[in-house]
Amino acid sequence: MRTNQEIISSIELEYQNKRRRNEINLQKRKRKLYEQYPYLEKIDDEINMKYLSIVKDSIEEKNVNDKTYKDIDELKKQKKQYIMENNIDMSSIKMNYECNICKDTGILENNGKISRCQCYTNRYNSLVYENMNMSKLFEDCNFDKFDIEIFDDVKKIGKFTQREFMSKMRNKALSFIDNFDDKNEKSMLFYGQVGVGKSYLCLCIAEKLIKKRKNVVYESSSELFEKLARYVFSSDKTQNSDAAVFNSLVYNCDLLIIDDLGSEMTNDFVRNQIFNIVNIRTINGRKTIISSNLTQDELQERYEQRTFSRISSYYNTYKFIGRDLRMPKLKIKRL
Question: What is the pTM of this model?
Fold first, then answer.
């Protein structure tokens, strides 16, 4: 398990690498534009040289010649005219950032006060969460150790044997990961009897996306609603409290996985929470995976029509089939 300082150092390195990539990509785009329009590079070089002469004169405490400023203004006019005449798209050489608020620094400054950007806070919270809860789960539950041969390939249930079905689900899961940033990629509902691979596949997806630097929260439904209750019914609503951090992650993480929905003690609080989670995350375009041992009819009856209606509309639904393998007893081997 990493220390808090190791997590912070890791995030700082991430931000340094972001800025380095941004600068490298900008220079590549600028070089490509200059190759297409050499005169544009010539004007920019002349403007830069004029500015350098101003800096040099200032360092040497010399008076800057007014003509230098006039020359710069004239060069800028020439540049503007050249851009218009050749219909050059200058947006290609603007710096691109993952976070336009802090410009990939993770830091905000307001009236002399320094604070962390929300993107930094989200990343920190996510890494702390992963550090505490996820590492042991991924030791055996990942696609590298996903052994399709453990599933029955003799008895057909409907169109497929269990092995054929899980092979298809493995491919669908990998497609979900590859297309994760596509707004048209839907969330997913896995349902079916106990021990047929739902939770295992959820963990494989989580492990893969965390490696892609996505913020993933994985919780059993009973743990999820218990932790949310601590925040909802707590008198301490401060932003940095553990309960507040978790509540924020549930709604704002890239992927929320609710495992074994239906195993919790369902009441009005739980029904309202699951509706809010499904509804708000859907509105905000954030993806969710729900697994349950309940049937679709049981889910609809327990969590009300309004929740099930949103799941039906915005989730891809998969019914898992086959015999109960009791996933903790699986013989896992490397592919």
Answer: 0.66
Contacts of 184 (CB under 8 A, 6+ apart): none
Q: What is the pLDDT of residues 168-204, one digit of tens each?
A: 999 999 999 999 999 999 999 999 988 888 999 999 9
**Residue pair 215/247 in contact by the 8 Å Cβ criterion:** no
| Residue-range definition of the domain harbouring residue 23 | 4-93
- Same structural domain for residues 30 and 153? no
Q: Pick from 92, 90, 111, 110: which is nearest to 102 by CA? A: 110
- Is 175 inside any structural domain? yes
237: in domain:
yes
Q: Tell me the helix, strand and coil percentages in the chain, rounded to 5.
A: 60, 10, 30
pLDDT in tens, 245-292: 788 889 988 999 999 999 999 999 999 999 999 999 999 999 999 999
The token duo for 107 is 């830091």
Q: Is 113 domain-assigned?
A: no
